Each structure stands twice: as structure tokens, then as C-alpha cells.
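Class, carefully examine what follows:
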Amino acid sequence: MNETAAVPAALVAKPGVATVSTLNPASGAGNNGLSNPIAFIINPPPNPLPGLTAISPASAPANSAQFTLMVSGSNFLPPTDPSGGSQLNWSIGGAQRKLTLLSGTSSNQIQATVTSDLLVNAGSANLTASVTVFNPPSPAPVGCTTACTGGGGGGSSAPATFTICPSSGCPPGTTTGASATALVAEETPALSLEGRYVAYTAVENDRAQIFLRDTCEGAEAVCQPHTTLLSAAADGTPANDESHSPSMSSDARYVAFSSAATNLVENSPPGRQVYLLDTCAGAGDSCQPSTHLISTDANGALVGTDSILPSVSASGRFVAFLAITPSHSSNHVSEKPASGNTSGYRQVFIRDTCLGVTNCTPKTTRISLRPGDGTGSGIKPAGPALSGNARHVAIVGANAATLFTRAVAVDDRVFLAIANQQH
């Protein structure tokens, strides 16, 4: 005899072990009409296949000291996943080693320690190792004792190649050059209010990128210091052009920076632009990091400009930045204007992102306008400095600027603009 019944989706929404039994009306023959229970296994969904898009660094000389390998990709599983989380494997010469992961694994980034014993190359030619990400299959639910197959899925990503150069060193272009490092040597890092987080510029694969270091200062004992790449696309791919000048909200949740990359957001304008990244620091698990274009204006005031040197308010809602006209090629690697004719305009804007408030429309307001520094001045542009509550912004060039708001002179070159209309 067969019986059928409709099972509501809500009853199988979570993995687990259910029991199924039948109940017949009491017959009066000494039994209650209840059958023996049968286990019904509700398996979890299959784990995704990981994707690996980049590793950094991608090379090192033989016998180098241990270092942190940063892996970017997609569908990475955290250590808290029932399967144990993603694994990072290092393979060379048929031998495979599972690397020790650092804390801070996200869906698109993994950090692991590569120890010096993995960097052995006694020959005179380059040696290559393969780096792969492995996702275990989703396990059977807790309490399962029979037919415990689990949800399956997972698997290994396509490999990325790591080059182990001879001990004499890697050839030019294989590792980061000193000239590229010098481009970011004078940039100022940004610090969160309590000093736990530091945002900074560093060279990765001959390109300036923005990183966030969680030092765990003042955090719970379970916190482990780790570094996260901020100038990256949604899939974790590093920015495809130079990024500079980080500025941070007081709690480190929001970090603004300037970048000439075209892969940070969809349909990004050409040239250097200002972006704001929600790092989700201190937010709940439901928060997903996201990058927003800041140097935008509905009235077209920023068309054809390079936007650089952002300054963020304490809450992260407001971002002040410098826009330079005319726009130059995105190949420039510093926050210094191109040589030649720079006699266009330099404008300071404040962007109200409306983050954290309701009934608000994002807008961009021009604070000041002044001529450029002229041909061959050799003067680096100075960006605005925004107060914590975004009511005041300090700007250089008071002797030549046109102001669009009330201001107080500080000296012949600096003034303090009053931006009360921002609130």
C-alpha cells in the first residue's frame, strides 16, 4: 500500500534529519496506530566550484623568507562553513602541500603563508609551482546515520602559476621593481579613529594598489592581523591601473581612493576617478563589500576631469576631492598633474553619498574653482581636507580661487570653506 503527501518547501528549507511516520485511527486492538519512523535526509545545497583569478605575489627568488600569498577569485568558502571552508593547495613536481590560511577569508579573497621550504630551486632556470583553491563537497547534515551522501559539489579551481626564480634573483619585470615602489613611497596612510585599521598604498605586480591592514589592536583575542586588497573588482580581481591616496572613515568601514582602473565599477569614466569602498568593517555578516563611484555629477560638472586626493568625513557619508581639468591619459601613476599645459581649472567638490540616512538624494556640490598651477611648475596638487562632520573643508589656493560658499582665510594660501549646506 502506498501513500502520497505534499511536503511544504518550508519543511525542507534547512539541512537536517527529519522523520516520517504514518498514523492510523486507533483500532482498539491494543496499538495506537503509529508506525515506526523512517529517517528523511535533507541535504545542504552543493558547494560551488571556486574560481581563481589572480595571486600576489606571483614569483620569488629561491630561498626567500616566508611571505603572505594573496589569492583573488570567487566562490571561496569561509572556515566556518560546515565543510571546513576552502583549501589552498601548492603543487610542485607532483607533490602537493596544503597552505596554512590566515584569518579574513572572504568569498573573493584568501590569504595564506608560503614558508621558505616551498621556495627551493637549485637550478639555473625558473621553476614553477601551481596554486589551486579547493572547495570540499557540502557534508551530510548533523545527525545523519544512513544514506549520508551530503550535498556534493565543490572541486578545484583552475591553477595559477607561481614562479620560483634561481637564487640569483628574478629577471626584470618578474617581480616588483624599485622604480614602481618609489611612486608610492611618499603617500600618507589613513588610520581609523581607534588606530586598529590602516589603509595604505603599496606596489603589487608593478602597480600601485590600496590595502587595508587590520592590526587587531584593541580587538578580541580571537582576532588575527590580516591584510585585504581594497582596489579590486567585485570578483576580487585587482584594479587594472594605478590606485592612490586612501582616506578612511573613523570606524574604517568606508575607504575612499583615487584610481585610473576601469574594472572597479561598471561603465566607469576614463581617467582617474574617486571611489568609495564599503569594507563592511564592523557591520553584520549580511553586509557585502561594494565599491561606489564618487566623482560623478548629474549636471555633468565632472566630465573631462581627473578626480584625485579624496578626503572622507568621519561617518563616510561625505567625500571631498579635487578635480583637475583637462583630463589626461590614465597612464599617469602618481597624483601629480601631467607635464605641459596644466593651466585649466582645479575644482574642489563634496559628494553627499546619503549613506546611513533616508529620504536623501546623492548630490555633488562644487566648493571652489581656481586656475591650474601653470606649465612646468613642478608643484604637486594639494587635495582638500574635510572635517569629521563635513561642515568645513580646508583648501589651498585662497589667493586665486573663486569660492562658492562662505570661507575664512587661514593665510595667503589656505582658506577654510564653510559647507553647512551639506546638512
Notes: Residues 9-42 form one domain. The longest helix spans residues 178-182. The chain has three domains: 9-42, 51-142+152-165, 178-422. The chain has one helix and 29 strands.
